[in-house]
Amino acid sequence: MATVSPDDQFEAVERTLVELREAGAPRLAELKVELLGRKQGLLTQILRSLSTLEPEERRAVGQRANQLKVEIDAVIGQREQELRAGESSGEDVDPTMPGRRSWRGAIHPVTAVIDDVCEIFRELGFSRVTGPEVETDAYNFTKLNIPLDHPAADMHDTFYLSPGILLRTHTSPVQARTMEQHKPPIRIVVPGRVYRRDPFDASHAPVFSQIEGLAVDEGITFVEFKAALDYFAKHFFSADTEVRFRPSFFPFTEPSAEVDVQCQMCRGSGCATCHRTGFLEIMGAGMVHPAVLENCGIDPERYSGYAFGMGPERIAMLRYGIPDIRMLFQNDMRFLRQFVE
Amino acid sequence: MNASLNWLSALLGTELEPTDVAHKLAMLGAPVESIEPLHQDLGDIIVAEVERVERHPNADRLTLCYVNNGVEVVEVVCGAPNVEAGKRYPYAAVGTVLPGGLKLKSRKIRGVQSNGMLCSASELALGADQDGIMELDTDAPAGTRLLDVLPVSDFRLDVEVTPNRPDLLGHKGIARDLGALMRRPVKLPPIPGAAGDTNAPVTTTGNGVVGGVEVSIDDVEGCPRYMAAVIEGVTVGPSPDWLVARLHSVGQRSINNVVDATNYALLELNQPMHAFDRARLGGSKIIVRRGGEGEKIKMLDGEERTLDSSMTAICDAHTATAVGGIMGGRESEVSEQTTDVVLECAYFDPKRIRSTRAALKMSTDASYRFERGTDLQGMADALRRTVQLIITIAGGSEPGPPVDVYPNPVKTPAIFLRPERVAHLLGVEIPQKEIEGYLTSLGFSVGPKNGRLAVHVPGWRPDVVREEDLIEEIARLRGYDSFPTELRPLRPSTVPSDPSQAAEALARRVFTGLGLHEAQSVSFGPQREHAFSIGESVESQDVLNPLSAEEAYLRTDLIEGLRQSVNRNWAVRERDIRLFEIGSVFGKRGDAEVPREQRRLSGVISGARRPAHWSESGPSVDFDRWDVKSLLDEAMRVAGIAGEVTEQDGRWVLRDSEGTWLGWAGEITMSGPPWAAPVFGFEVVMRQGVSRAVRFEAIPSTPPVERDIALWLPAGVQVDQVNEIIGKRGGKLLESAQVFDEFRSAGKRSVAWRLVFRSPDRTLRDKDVDVVLNKVLKELKEQLGVERREA
Hints:
A: three-stranded antiparallel β-sheet, B: elongated
C-alpha cells in the first residue's frame, strides 16, 4: 500500500471541494463518490488511515477530517439545492422565473390612518395618550357639559354595563381625565375604541375608533384652532385641499364647528360620495366650552383651547375607497393583503 | 325637520333658490340633508278649457273634445266620464313629459287624431282619481300654467337641526337665521281670507275664565304657563287647498281644519297647540296637575296609558283629558260634531317632558319640541295667530279674550358681553357696531353698559345662556370662513405620550415583519366562565342593553375574534391565514363595578409556512406548534413580559413568578374544510409602561470556537433542564447554546446542541473549551443522567 501523506490527501480533498461548488448535476454525483465513496472516497480513506497514525497526529488529522466532512456535506447540500433551482452554470437559465418570497404582513388600514393623523399632530406638539374604554357617566357626559336629562345626550346611543358605568361613546372623556391630572399647556391626541348602540350596516358599526384632540393654553384663539386643523387637513390629504368650517353643536365646545374637506373623489366638483356638495365632513370640533374647563379645575378666563374628534374608519374608507365599514372588522385575508406597503 | 321652500320664501318675502338656501343653512349650522322637488315636473301642464264635447265616431265610451289651450283649439280624445263642455282641466300638450317620465306623442285613437291629453289627478301624481279627469275650480284663462293655479310645487328641505336649536324646528326660526344672513326681516305671511289686522296685539285676561271654561295650574313646576282661547261656532271640515298644500309640502297629512290649524302653528312658530272639544270637557274646567298614581287615560293614538305623579296631566273636573306636552286624550278630541273649541297654548318644563316621554315610551312632534324648549315669551302671538287661522278657515268667534295663567313670570337676566373677550377667544378684533348688528339681526336686544354689552336673549333661544354662546353667534353670522388661519408659536405640552402607544407600535412592526396581518375584531364576545385562553379564569362582563345576543357580553380575550376570522377566511377558500390583533379585553369584577380592562396581543397562523416556490418541489410545509412557540417568544418580548412557560393540555401557558396568567400558545382545535391546515394561536397580556432599553455591548474581537454535542436524554429530562446546567457550567466562556437537532432511536432520545465559546480578550484554545465542556458533561451526567452520544 502506497503511503500518501495526510497533507497530500487533504489537498486532494480540498481541490475536489472547489470543483464541487461549481459542478453540474452529473459531475456532482461523481464527486460525491470520489470524496465520500465507501471504498475509495478520498475522505473515507483519510478516516480509515487514522488508526495507523501516532496519537498526537491522529488527533490533529481526525479533527481536520471531521471539519472537512461537515463542510463537504454543507457544500453538497447547497449545490444540490442550487441545481434544483436551475442555477447550474452552463445550463439554460430562465431569468424570468419568480424569486423566492417571504410572507409580508400589513398594519390595519384604520391603524394606518390613526398613525398618520397622530404623526401630523405630533408635528404641532401633541403627545399621544389613551384612556379606558369603560367609563362612568361623569367622564363620558357630565364633566363634558352633557347633562343626562338634556336631548344632547341622545346624540350618543350608549351601551351601559351597569347604572352609571358604560362603554365610552367617544374618546372625549380622556380630555377631562387629562385636564384633571395635568396643567396647561396641554396638547394631546387620543386614539381609541368607542361604542354606540348602532347595528352594523354599510356605514355604521357598534364599535369603531375615534381620535380626540385637545389643546389648552393661554391665548389659544379660534384663529389658531382653524389653523391647526387646516394644517392637519392639508398634510393628511394634500396641500391644495380646501378646508371648510361650518357652525355646529357639541355640548363640550363653544363655538362648535364641523370641519369639511374638499371631496377627495371629485376634487370638489360634486359626486355621489359627497352628495354633490364637493365637501366631505371629516370631524367635529370647536373651542373648549368654558364649563368643561371649569369642571376640570381650569380657569376659563385665563385659559382657552380647542378640541376635535374624528373617525378613522370613515377617513380610511374615504382614503382607500372602501365601500362598507363592515369590511374593516371581517379580517378577510383578501382585504388585509391589499394594505401591504 | 322638513321645511318648505315656499313657506320660507313667504316668511322672507322673497323668492328663494333651493341650493342657495341649503348652502346658507349649512354655513349657519343647520345643514340640509336632502332637497326634494315636489311637483316641479308639472311645469309644462297648463289649464285648458273644453269648449265642445262630441261622441267619438268609432267608440261608445270615448269622447272627442275641442280643447282651448290658450293659443288654439285642438282635438283631444278623452275616455273620462266626467268631461263637460265649459269646464277647465289640466292639459298636457304633445311633447310634454308627465310625472313618471312618459312623453306624450300625437297618436290616433280608434282612427281619430288626439292632440295631447286631459289629465287625471293620478296622472299628475296629485293623488287618487275622483271621477276621472281633474276638474279645476278656477277662473284662470286657458293657457295659464297649472302651477300658477294649484300651489303644489315646492321644494322640501330636510334640515338637520341640532338639539340646542329648538327654534329651527319651526319655519319662522329657520327664516330668522336666513334673514339675519341675508339682511331681510321676517314677517309672518298673511292668512288667505283673514279679516282684520293679523298683527294686532293680544289682550288676555288673568282671571282664568274664558268662554265659561275655568283654567288653573296646580303643577306650576311642570307647566309654568298655560294660555287658552275659546272659539265658539266653528264648522269642522276640510282645510283649504293652500293649507293642505303647506302640510303636504312638509310631509304631513291634512286631518281637519281645526287640527290642521294647530299643526300649522307648530310648523310655523314651533309652538305645539292642542284643541279640545269644549262640550266634552267635564265641568267646563281645565286643571293642570300632576298625574295620579295609576291614573289611566285613553290617548289620541287609541292606546290607554297609565300616569304617575312625575307627569303633568291636563284634566277636566273629573278626569285626565291629555298628557301635558305629549298627546291629547280620545275623550276630548275635536270631531265633526264639535262646535266650540278650547285651544291650549302652554309651556311645559323640558326635563319633565323628557322623563315623561321616556316613561311612556312615546315621542310626538309636540314632546320633541317641548323637550328642547319652546318660546315662553312667544306664546301669546302663537295663540292669536292660530285663533285667527281657525276663525278664517272654520268660522266661529271668540266669546272673550284668551286666558293667560302665568303664576311666576320668568325674567331672564341679561348676559354681559365684553368686546375684548370676543377678540380674546376669536383672535380677531370685531368692532362693537358689527357685534351689535349680528346680535340684533337674530332678535337679541343689545344695550351698551360700562364698556360691556348687556344682551337680552329672546325666548326662542334657550340655548344661549353665557357669554361664549353669544360669541358663537357672532362667529356664526360673521362666517367661520371669514377668520384667518394662522399658526402661532406654541408651548410644548406638559403631558407625556403614553408608553403603551410605542409598545403597540413595536408589536405591529414586529408581527407585520413576521408576515402576519393586523386584524380588528369587535369588542363583544360570547359569554364564558373560562376563556378559551387556557389557564385563565375569567367571567364575562355583560352589557345591560345589548343590540343582540351577539353583543350581550364584552370579549374576555382576543383569540375568539381571530378564531372566527379563521372560519370566515376558510369560507372564502383562503388557506393561508396569518393574523394578529392588539386590543382591550374585559373581565367582570362584580355587579355595578367597573370591569377589569386589559390590553392584549394575540395571533393565529394556519397554512403554508412560506409562500410556495417552484424550486421547492413537493407539498408546502405548513405551520406547526414550533412556529407558534416562537411567536409566543416574540410576543413576550414586545409585550414586555417574562415568566415561566409550562405545558398544560398540550399548550404552553405563561405565568409570572406569582402565578398570574400572562398568556398562552398552542394549537387551536377547529373543524375546518378538508383542505384546511391546523391552526395555531397565542395571546399575551401587554404590560403597561414598559420602556425597553437596548444596551450596546462591545463587539468581540476574538474568534469563536464552536462545538456540536449530541446528548442522550433519559425519559423525563427536558431541554430546559439541560439548558440550565449548560448555562450554569458553561460559565463566562460560553456565548450561546442552541438546540439544532433531535433524533430518536429505539425509544431513546438524543438532542444536539451547538455551543459557541468565546473569550472577550484572547483566542480560545481547544484545551480551554474542553475543560469547560467536560465540566458541563460531568454535571449533566450527575444531575440528569445525560450521556454524550458518540458519533
